[in-house]
Amino acid sequence: MSKTVTVTGAAGAIGYALLFRIASGQLVGPDEKVRLRLLEIEPALKAAEGTAMELVDCAFPLLEAIDITADPNEAFDGANIAMLVGARPRTKGMERADLLEANGAIFQPQGKAINDHAADDIKVLVVGNPANTNALIAMNNAPDVPRERFTAMTRLDQNRAYGQLAAKLAIPLTDIEDLVIWGNHSPTMFPDLFNAKIKGPPSQKAVDAVDDMAWYENEYLPNVGKRGAAIIEARGASSAASAANAAIDHIHDWVLGADGLVSMAVPSGGQYGVPDGLVSSFPVRVSGGDYEIVEGLEVGEFAQSKIDITVNELKEEQAAVKSLGLI
Ligand code: NAX
User: What range(s) does the Lactate/malate dehydrogenase C-terminal domain occupy (predicted)?
Assistant: First the structure.
C-alpha cells in the first residue's frame, strides 16, 4: 500500500522544507510508501521540477513516484492527503476583501477538484494564509467530502507556544502537556495556559506555574501571536522549516494518533459557542485516523474574552467570503 500526498505550492519555501521530510517517511510512518503530487502554477513548474530532481537524488526507499502538474484535477486525483500550502500573499496596500477574493480563486477550484477526484479517505490540511478561511472556502466547495476532512494549521502556533512557555519556566518542553491554541491562525489566536499542564508530581496548571497574568496577557499572548512577524524581521523571510515541521506534525498525528491534546483548526459543530461550520482552532484528540474536539474544558472569563475576539475575526472573514460568493 502507498499513500498519495498532494502538495500545493510545491516550489515555494515551505514546499522545499516539506517534501523531503514527507518522502523520507516522517509524514505517515516508516512503513508506508508515498506517491507525491506537486501542484504549482505554470511559471513555477520548472522550479518544482528542480525540487523533484533533488528528491530523486535522495534515493528515498519509500518514495514511489513524483508527478508535477498545474492542473488541480490531476493533482488531487486519488489523493489520500492534501497539503494546501500555495496561497496568494497579502501585498502592500491590499485590502482584506482583495486578499480573500484572490485566495478564493485558488481554494474554490481546489475544493472542487478535491470533491471530484480525491480518494474517499482524503484528509486536507490548509497551510496557505488566511488558512482557516481558505479551508472554509475549500470545504464549502466540496459538498461530497465529509466536512471534518478539511482542517487548517495552528500547530506551528502551538509549537511556538510550547517553546516560549518552556523558556519562561526554564523547563524542558517535554514537561508541558495539553497546551493548545484556540481560534484563528492570526495574531488574535489564544494559547490556553488554563488547560495546559506542567507534569508533576504534582502536576500543575501552566497558568499557576507561571503565576504572572501580566506576563501572560502582555508578553506571552502577543509574542506567540506575532512570532511569524518577528521571524520575518530577523531572517528577512517568513517561517519555512518550522511551518513545514508543524504541517508534518499535524498530518502525522491525525493519521497515526498522539497522546494528549493537540491544536487543529477544524469545522466547528457548535462546541464552546463557536458557530457551526466555522473553521476554528480547538483542542482535539487524535486516534485511529480521526480527531475529536474535546468538550468540557475549563473556559473562564479571561479565556472566553480572548476566544471571542479571535472567533469574531473568523466570523467577519466568513461573512466577507460569503458576500464575495466564495462559499
Ligand atoms: P512561497 O511564496 O515561498 O511559496 C508559495 C508557492 O505557492 C509559490 O511557489 C507559488 O507559485 C505557489 N502557488 C501560488 N498559487 C498557487 C496555486 N493556485 N496552486 C499551486 N501553487 C500555487 O510561500 P511559503 O513561504 O512557502 O508560504 C506558503 C503559505 O504558507 C503562505 O500563504 C504563508 O502565509 C503560509 N504560512 C502559514 C503558516 C501557518 O501556520 N498556517 C505559517 C507559515 C506561512 O506563513
Answer: 154-321
